[in-house]
Design a protein that fits this description.
By secondary structure, the protein is mainly α. It has one domain. It contains two helices and no strands.
């Protein structure tokens, strides 16, 4: 499935800026750390795919 992310560039940029990966604290549960890492991983994937599509459009 190939979805164009170019129309959503502003949203992806907003997510990138607002949902940063917080530095884990010693008292954080493994579940919280994994949740934060997964959330950030999804944003990184969106950024990668967006950049890929931008390069293809030129």
């Amino acid at each position: 499935m190939n979805i164009s992310l170019l129309p959503h560039k502003e949203l992806i940029t907003y997510l990138d800026q607002s949902l940063t990966f917080p530095t884990p604290k010693p008292n954080d549960s493994l579940e919280k750390i994994m949740y934060d890492a997964g959330r950030r991983s999804l944003i990184d994937l969106l950024l990668f795919k967006l950049k890929e599509q931008e390069e293809e459009s030129f």
